Amino acid sequence: MTDISAQDQAPEAVEKTRNQWWDVWDQFRSHKGAMAGLIFLTFITLFCAFGPMVWDVDPGKLDIRNKDVRPIYVAIWDGDAKTSWARPMGTDHLGRDIMSNIMQGGRISLAVGWTAMILAILIGTFVGVLSGYFKRLDWGLMRFTDLVLSLPILPLLLVMMLLFRDPLRAAFGPETGIFLLIVAGIGITSWMQTARIVRGDVMALKEREFVLAARSIGTPPRRMITRHILPNVLSPIMVSATLGLATAIITESALSFLGLGFPSDFPTWGKILFDSVDRMTAFPERVLWPGLAISLTVLAVNYIGDGLRDALDPRIRGL
Question: Reduced to 3 states, what is the DSSP secondary structure of residue 6?
Fold first, then answer.
């Protein structure tokens, strides 16, 4: 009888010890848009990261003899177009391979997006936790957050680019200096929403019973924040991170499109789009590729954020 009852209770014990992250994953998988976004984001990341190992064409190589080569599918409606199977996406007016430039530009755009997002999340979480937990710091930090929110972001970024571009390029080189400047500019102008969200959650959490119990036994504030507060605000931070990644990619593309990003021989999706605008009428496919890369990547990240929001909400998870 003892063995039978133990066997009957075993599935219940396994169900009780099931990790909650498996429930989050199950809820996330049920969101079709989030799964499609995750698949596309994984694909575009692998395409840009490992694609140059397979397609080893130098993105900066000039081949004047093969300039303005159009993709094969263009021959369907334009029989006179110069096409080549060796250039699946064609070449630009200088003979540079467009597909290799899309790969290289994607690596830069995604690197800027991820790095700027991490910087913004770190700043926003730091400010939000301090403001929500320490009442004496709340007024000053939130008024500073309101001040930064009131600033026009794009003009501010343009001013930062004009003021600090040349000193950073001289100190770190043209590519590294601009990378640091763009990441810092996007990061320090994108943390405010995260700070407000984290502050609200921290203010609610610090009145919960387990926090009051930990405070009653003399837990210091630093340990209270790292052990009890931060683990319970990971959900909104993760959702803010996905939305911040999309914002960072769009902002970097806008700066590159305006000609204030990386050097002209250093491709990004925004720079490729800018170079293609002048010949958009004659070669519309050149605008299509970087535009699709930016739009679909941002759309995929937004869908992932929606899926994470639903999966991490305990009121929705399990329905």
Answer: helix
For 67, counting Cβ atoms within 10 Å of its Cβ (0-12 exposed, 13-18 middle, 19+ buried), the class is middle
Determine phi and psi for 70, rounding to 5 degrees.
Answer: -105, 155
Contact predicate 282/217, CB 8 Å: no
What is the CA angle 190-195-199, rounded to 5? 170
> For every one of its 319 residues, what pLDDT tens digit does the chain have, with 9 covering 90 and above?
445 444 555 555 444 556 667 777 888 888 888 899 999 999 999 999 898 888 888 888 887 787 877 776 665 555 555 666 667 788 888 888 888 889 988 998 899 999 999 999 999 999 999 999 888 999 999 999 999 888 888 888 888 888 888 888 888 887 888 889 889 989 988 899 899 999 998 988 888 888 888 888 888 888 888 888 888 888 888 888 888 888 888 888 888 888 777 777 778 888 888 888 888 887 888 888 888 999 999 999 999 988 888 887 665 555 5
Distances (CA, A) of 219 to 46, 210, 222, 224, 237: 45, 12, 8, 6, 24
Burial of 135 (0-12, 13-18, 19+ CB in 10 A): exposed
**Residue 243: what residue type?**
L
| Three-state DSSP state, 70 | strand
**C-alpha gyration radius of the chain:** 25
d(CA 138, CA 127): 9
Burial 211-246 (b: 16+ CB within 10 A, else e): beebeeeeeeeeebbeebbbeebebbbbbbbbbbbb
